[in-house]
Write a structure and sequence with these properties.
single chain; Arc Repressor Mutant, subunit A; SH3 type barrels; 4 domains; five-stranded antiparallel sheet; four-stranded antiparallel sheet
C-alpha cells in the first residue's frame, strides 16, 4: 500500500473502540459516492494490511469482531510510527500554548498523543531533552480557569476539518441568544483559555469566530466544506486584532496619545503598542513622558488602559478619553 493511501485512510478512522466503524461506513467516507463492490473490496484489503503486524512495525488499526467487523485507530501506534523527535517536542510545547483549554483531549484520545511525545523526547538527543526540561510557555493574564469545552464539541470540530465537511451546532451568544448554525470551518485558534472556530456560513460571508464553549448539539454535516481559497488564517488573526472586535464601525487605527508616569514607562519601552510608537518628554517637570501610537480601537483597548490605573492619562483621541472617563465614573459609583 502506498504511504499516501495509508495516511488518507488513517485520517478517516475514528479513535477508540466506542467509535469504531464498518468497512461500508469507511468506504462512504473514502469515495463520497454510491459504492460498487470493487470499492468495498479495495477498502477491505487496505484495512487488513493496516490491522496486521509486519516487519515495518506494529498494527495501526484495531478490529472489533462482529457482524459487520468494525475498525478504529490505535492512536499510540500511529503516532509512534509518524512522530519524529522534532514533532514530539513541538507537540509538547504546543500543548503548553493551548494550555488547559484542551484538557478534554484525554477523552478523545489526545492523552496517548502526549504520552508518545513524552517518550520520544525522553529517548531524544541531549539538546531536545534540555529544551523540554528548561522551556515553559505561560499565557498572559492572572490565571483564570479555562472555558469548559465539551469533548464531543471538540471532537466534532476536528472531525469536520479532517473530513472537509460542514458543521451543524447550536450556538449561544454572550447575550444568551440561542441559534442553529451550519458553517464551514476555516480554522481553529486557541486564545485566553478557550478555543475559537473560525467559520463561514456561505461563500460570500466574512469568517466569524465561535468560542467552542458556547457550542452544543453538534454534528458533522454530509455537505462538503466550502473552503475559502482567499482565506489566510494568520492574516485573519492579524486583521481582526487577535480576534477582538472594533468598537463601532471604525476600522482604521486611531492616534492614541498617553501621558505616562516614569515608573510605568517600561511597559511601553519593552512592548510597544505599535511599530510607529514614539516616546517623548512632556512639557511638565514631573518626569512623565508622552507616548503616541496608531492602534485599533478594539474592545480590549480601554480595559488595557484602565489596568494602568493612575499611572497613565489618556490625552486623546477624545472618544477613547470619554470612554475611559465614563467607566471610571461607573467604577467610582460602586465604591
Amino acid at each position: 500500500m502506498k504511504m499516501n493511501t495509508a495516511v488518507r485512510l488513517l485520517k478517516l478512522l475514528p479513535v477508540g473502540e466506542q467509535h469504531a466503524i464498518s468497512i461500508a461506513d469507511l468506504a462512504v467516507k473514502w469515495y463520497g459516492r454510491e459504492l460498487e463492490r470493487s470499492d468495498i473490496r479495495n477498502i477491505q484489503r487496505y484495512m487488513n494490511d493496516l490491522a496486521m503486524e509486519s516487519e515495518d512495525g506494529p498494527a495501526l488499526v484495531e478490529i472489533v469482531e462482529g457482524t459487520p467487523r468494525r475498525f478504529y485507530l490505535k492512536l499510540s501506534q500511529v503516532v509512534d510510527w509518524l512522530m519524529t523527535e522534532q514533532t514530539a517536542l513541538n507537540t509538547l510545547l504546543t500543548r503548553q500554548v493551548i494550555g488547559q483549554a484542551l484538557g478534554s483531549l484525554e477523552e478523545i484520545g489526545g492523552k496517548k498523543l502526549i504520552e508518545v511525545a513524552e517518550v520520544k523526547v525522553v529517548d531524544a538527543s541531549a539538546a531536545t531533552k534540555n529544551i523540554r526540561e528548561r522551556v515553559r510557555i505561560v499565557s498572559d493574564g492572572f490565571g483564570r480557569l479555562p472555558a469548559d469545552i465539551k469533548p464531543t464539541v471538540l471532537q466534532a470540530v476536528i472531525d469536520s476539518i479532517v473530513q472537509q465537511r460542514q458543521l451543524n451546532f447550536t450556538y449561544v451568544s454572550s447575550a444568551g441568544v440561542s441559534s442553529m448554525v451550519r458553517a464551514s470551518p476555516q480554522g481553529l485558534v486557541a486564545k485566553d483559555g478557550t478555543i475559537y472556530l473560525l467559520a463561514t456560513k456561505g461563500l460570500g460571508d466574512k469568517p466569524g469566530h465561535f468560542p467552542l464553549h458556547r457550542m452544543s448539539a453538534i454534528s458533522v454535516d454530509h455537505r462538503a466544506l466550502q473552503k475559502r481559497p482567499d482565506f489566510d488564517l494568520d492574516r485573519y488573526i492579524l486583521d481582526s486584532n487577535q480576534l477582538s472586535h472594533t468598537l463601532g464601525s471604525e476600522e482604521t487605527p486611531v492616534e492614541l496619545k498617553l501621558r505616562v508616569a516614569p515608573g510605568t514607562l517600561y511597559h511601553f519601552r519593552e512592548r510597544p503598542l505599535s511599530r510607529d510608537q514614539k516616546i517623548s518628554p512632556s512639557k511638565s517637570s514631573d518626569g512623565w513622558c508622552v507616548v503616541t501610537a496608531s492602534v485599533r480601537f478594539t474592545l480590549l483597548l480601554v480595559p488595557f488602559l484602565l489596568s494602568m490605573g493612575g499611572w497613565i492619562e489618556v490625552l486623546g483621541p477624545q472618544q477613547v478619553r470619554d470612554e475611559i472617563a465614563e467607566r471610571v465614573r461607573a467604577m467610582t459609583a460602586h465604591y
